[in-house]
Amino acid sequence: MKRNYYLLTIICFLFLAACDKKKDRVFDESPTVRLNAAVANAQNILRSKPNGWIFQYFPGANAPYGGVNLFVNFTSATDVNMQADYTTGNITSSYKVYPGAGPVLTFDTYNSVLDYFALPGVLSNWGASDTGLGGDIEFLVVKANADSVILKGRKRNTTLVMVPVPGDAASVPALIANYRTSFNRFYNANSFRFVTATKTTALSWGTYNGLMAGSINYSFRPTDTGVDGFQQYTVDGITFKQLTFKAATATYTKGYYANADESLKLVIL
């Protein structure tokens, strides 16, 4: 019996030692090595999409100004091409991914498509005279995989998302054109109102693309099918984030955006 006890003790000791060695192997790499690997992974992911990425960009802390779509293609280890829904510009500049608190993506030379949102208000004519719309141009890469890249602005701490541009290369110009049509439809509206079965809420323009109902801010990004909120919103007890554009009717002569069951409408005025 005593012999069996000793044998069991030895087996347990060997098992625990093996576990410790396995654990040691996991942490064999230094923090620097792991960080450099994360930087390399982020760089590879960014360059892995031949059509590039749709950068769902909201300037400012907590996104008070509405959002735009930037079409970002990392064409080499140093070059990036940008287009957007709000402008017809097609600009190539440089970028890099470097180690910081994690992988950091910085657009390190001037690109008017992105830097417009970081200009002082005296130059952009939006927002405060010194900070303007408060757009970030440098981001911590929180997560990077084939489906999405999650970024956090280093100045404003706003979490932003990039998703792959769908389709093949031949379909990209039409996709961007659809986004521009959607942006212009939203941006050029005189105003909006929310309509539910029991309530109508008047909205006015805030700064840039932001909408206001009194002191409540609604921040939308036009999409190729409608609009997408920076976060979920609740109006008259109805919670929503994405709304689909519906063509004009006799009642809503400029069209409207609606949730799936049309219990909530964002009517264009």
Automatic annotation (TrEMBL):
InterPro entries: DUF4302. Pfam families: DUF4302 (PF14135). It comes from the Bacteria. This is DUF4302 domain-containing protein. It comes from Pedobacter vanadiisoli.
